[in-house]
Every structure is written in C-alpha cells, then in structure tokens.
Design a protein that fits this description.
about 325 residues; three-stranded mixed beta sheet; 11 helices
Length: about 325
C-alpha cells in the first residue's frame, strides 16, 4: 500500500510584502517566546520564587534575549556549524536573513548574560538561572514550531504514516539529480525553473505537489518531535518542580541542562544530521554531552551550598 504523505507547503511568511520582505513566522516565534517567558517569569516572581521583583523581569528578559539568545544563538551557529565560512567571511554574522541560529549557543549566551546580571545587581546567579530555565522551554517550543513552518531541520527518511515530504530536501541533491527535478517541474510549468521558484509554488500548485510527492523522500517531522520534547516535556517537568517541590537554588538549572541534553540526544535520532558527525554522534548530540557535565556541576553546587529562596506557598 502506498501512503499519501503530506508535502510540506507552508510559507515562512505570515504576511509577505514583496520578494523576501515580510513578517516571518520565525521572527514571530522569538517574539512569542519572549512575551510568554516574561509573563511566566513575572508570575514566579510575584509568588516569591525569584530574587527579581516582578517589575524587573521585563528588562532582564529583554536584554538577555538580545545579548544572550540572539547574539549567542547566531555566534553559536557560526562557530559550531559553519566555522570555515565564518572565519573566511566574518561579516556573515550580520546576514541574519540567510538563517542560522543554534539553541546551544543561545543557552550559553543567556547563561553568560545571567551571570553578568547577577553580579552587577548583587543577586543569586543560581536563583536567576533556576527561574529562567523554567520558562526557557517555551522559547524552544516556539522556535521548533517555526523550524517546521520553514521546512528546515527536517528528519531522517522513514516510512511511518505521519511522515512529511520537505521540498527543501532538493538543496541536498547532487547537481544531476537537481537538474533532472527542475526539468520535470519546468515541463509542468515553465515558471518552476529553479529551487526557489519550486518552493514558492508548492502552496499554490496542486499538480506541483503531486509531482514532488513522487520525487521527495518521506521524513520524520523532527521539528515537532523536538518541540514536544524540548518544549512541552521540559516545561512541564520544570514548572512542576518549581511550584510543587522545595529544592535548593541551582537544582532546577542542573536538571534543565541534563534533561535538555538527554532529550536533544534522543530527538537527534529522528533528525537529518546538518553537520559532519563527530564519531558516531551528530553535532547536536556531541555538544549536548558537555551540557550534562554542566548540569552535574550545578547539582553538586546546590548540594554543597544549599540555598532556599522560599517554601511552597499554599495553592501555588
């Protein structure tokens, strides 16, 4: 039996003004993550879980997002996944419209910013970090959903019934295979004479989708798998621990680093590697091994120097 898989035809734009100018889902995902993160962090602060006062949260999250997530995520991507090109052309750092953000880099960037902020304002670094990691999975969730909408970071080839066919796969084709595909799409309609034209036409042309369904391999929608693991699962775990368990400052940060690393290692089993392997590990899995070590250090720190911000409040 031949399954009819979904051919990915979502536009990266919510509103497209002209050419590559418009309001992109990817940018909106960052905005949504920041706004929801601010609301949840303010709630934790209002209940007494944070050394920050509720009216300090907006500045902390906003500046952390700018200097930590955006700069750290961009620099992390270029160093971890595109170092050769970055070293030869450092100005690509500013060409953000070409894409390229790394969650590991964003996490490192925000951690460094949090350390600086805590030192400057004489606050507990561990307490700030614990509350920050509780809301961080929300941003990861929205980011992975945006990856799916963009049709990027797709999964490995599979035959499961819920597989998706991603047209962006053609950018990985050898020249002769890509030329053959473009020849077929051009015969269908002369305007489909390039990869970009094909991507732009998928949503409007049913015949094009039918043609591509016979050319493109079905793959795991790994972006949604990672959204469920890194976003929903981690948030549920950390929110429960923050609001229902009395733990020393630093424990939640340690749990986040270890849990994120474990779900990322598992999630990468479904994702097509987007960088050369390091031994038998994908780049994401290899980087996650170091996060486990960092998480263990935070747990040891919390055990050796316990500090409790508040006891549980009834009804919280």
């Amino acid at each position: 039996m031949i399954l009819a898989y979904y051919v990915h035809d979502l536009s990266p734009f919510l509103i497209r003004f002209s050419g590559e100018i418009g309001i992109r889902w990817y940018g909106l995902s960052y905005l949504a993550g920041f706004l929801v993160g601010i609301l949840l962090y303010r709630r934790l602060a209002a209940k007494g879980y944070s050394d920050l006062k509720p009216d300090q949260v907006v500045d902390f999250i906003t500046m952390g997002a700018l200097f930590g997530v955006l700069l750290g995520g961009r620099l992390g991507y270029l160093l971890f996944y595109d170092a050769d090109r970055f070293l030869h052309d450092p100005l690509i750092f500013f060409r953000v419209w070409e894409g390229g953000m790394a969650s590991h880099g964003g996490i490192i960037g925000f951690a460094l910013y949090t350390f600086w902020y805590a030192r400057r304002h004489r606050l507990s670094f561990r307490n700030l970090g614990d509350n920050l990691v509780v809301v961080a999975p929300i941003g990861l969730f929205f980011g992975r959903c945006a990856n799916f909408i963009n049709g990027e970071l797709y999964g490995r080839i599979t035959d499961v019934a819920w597989a998706v066919q991603f047209p962006k796969e053609m950018f990985l084709y050898p020249p002769e295979s890509l030329e053959r595909l473009i020849s077929r799409t051009s015969d269908l309609d002369p305007k489909f004479n390039s990869p970009d034209a094909i991507l732009n036409g998928v949503a409007q042309s049913e015949p094009l989708r039918v043609l591509l369904s016979g050319e493109i391999a079905p793959r795991y929608p790994s972006q949604l798998i990672e959204a469920s693991l890194e976003g929903v699962l981690l948030f549920s775990l950390l929110w429960f621990m923050r609001t229902k368990c009395r733990v020393s400052d630093g424990v939640l940060t340690g749990v986040f680093f270890i849990s994120y690393a474990l779900v990322r290692i598992f999630g990468e089993c479904f994702r097509e590697p987007d960088a050369p392997l390091t031994g038998s590990f994908t780049r994401g899995q290899f980087l996650s091994l170091f996060m486990i070590l960092v998480g263990l250090l935070f747990l040891i720190w919390a055990w050796m120097r316990p500090r409790y911000r508040v006891a549980l409040r009834e009804g919280s």
